[in-house]
Specification:
The protein is an all-alpha fold and 152 residues long. The chain has 2 domains: 36 residues; 82 residues. It contains 8 helices and no strands. It starts with a helix and ends with a helix. 6% of the residues are buried.
Length: 152
């Protein structure tokens, strides 16, 4: 036994044993180039199939979240930090205006004009004005998020 093996017995490796272990990994005569080509093609096909499936799943997930009117309205309410009563009031406003997409109230300030509103919504004039100021003020969504984080 050499001096290295005496000092570090865990690192001493029997080369014959190592060759025996790796002999199974070496190519065999029955491994023809055609078999290897088929195996490579099958592997590439599986990878391509998994890639296409993940792309399809991600695309349908993105499409689902953007085309659902209620989801967009909910996300905008959340981004602006609106409470449940404010969300209900905005939904009532969108319903009265017969908007196909309730989220339009976030981009059309004229919807908050109380002149043509029914009495049930006109009674909410102070809250509607507050919401209009909050949604269409010079500040952005980030300032409202910061306000919400401070607990105001």
């Amino acid at each position: 036994m050499n001096a290295f093996a005496v000092r570090c017995p865990l690192l001493a490796v029997d080369l014959d044993r190592l060759f025996q272990l790796t002999r199974g990994l070496q190519s065999r005569p029955e491994d023809t180039p055609e078999k290897l080509l088929w195996l490579g093609g099958l592997t590439a096909g599986m990878v391509l199939l998994l890639w296409a499936a993940s792309r399809w799943a991600n695309r349908s997930e993105r499409r689902r979240s953007y085309t659902h009117p209620g989801r967009l309205f909910y996300e905008l309410c959340r981004a602006h930090g609106l409470d449940a009563s404010s969300r209900r009031l905005l939904r009532r406003l969108a319903s009265y205006a017969r908007l196909a997409q309730p989220a339009q109230v976030f981009v059309e300030p004229q919807r908050f004009d109380t002149a043509g509103l029914p009495p049930s919504l006109a009674a909410e004039q102070p809250r509607l004005e507050q919401l209009r100021a909050r949604l269409f003020a010079a500040g952005d969504v980030a300032s409202h998020a910061a306000e919400r984080a401070r607990g105001h």
